[in-house]
Write a structure and sequence with these properties.
Strand content: 25-35%
Organism: Neobacillus bataviensis
Shape: globular
CATH topology: Alpha-Beta Plaits
CATH architecture: 2-Layer Sandwich
Strand order of the largest sheet: 2-3-1-4
Order of helices and strands: EHEEHE
Number of helices: 2
CATH class: Alpha Beta
Number of strands: 4
Number of domains: 1
Protein name: Copper chaperone CopZ
Distance between the termini: 22 Å
Subcellular location: Cytoplasm
Radius of gyration: 11 Å
Largest sheet: 4 strands, antiparallel
GO molecular function: copper ion binding
InterPro entries: CopZ (IPR049740), Cu-bd (IPR000428), Heavy-metal-associated_CS (IPR017969), HMA_Cu_ion-bd (IPR006122), HMA_dom (IPR006121), HMA_dom_sf (IPR036163)
Structural class: alpha+beta
């Protein structure tokens, strides 16, 4: 398992949290997703054998948020 913290811009409310946690959490290989709205960070724990970091970033981007 790998743990990363991503800086994500554009999240501002509970809906944003649900959109990111729901979409990333639905990916095969992701075991946990936690959004820190105030810090604009997303902690993700995932299995690199099943899902790539690029795929996780792309999924967040697809929700309309910018991953830095």
């Amino acid at each position: 398992m790998e743990k990363v913290t991503l800086n994500v811009q554009g999240m501002s409310c509970g809906h944003c949290v649900k959109a990111v946690e729901g979409s990333v959490g639905a990916l095969n290989g992701v075991s946990s997703v936690k959004v820190d709205l105030k810090a604009a960070k997303v902690d993700v724990e995932f299995n690199t054998q099943e899902v790539s970091l690029d795929k996780i970033k792309e999924t967040i981007d697809d929700q309309g948020y910018d991953v830095k």
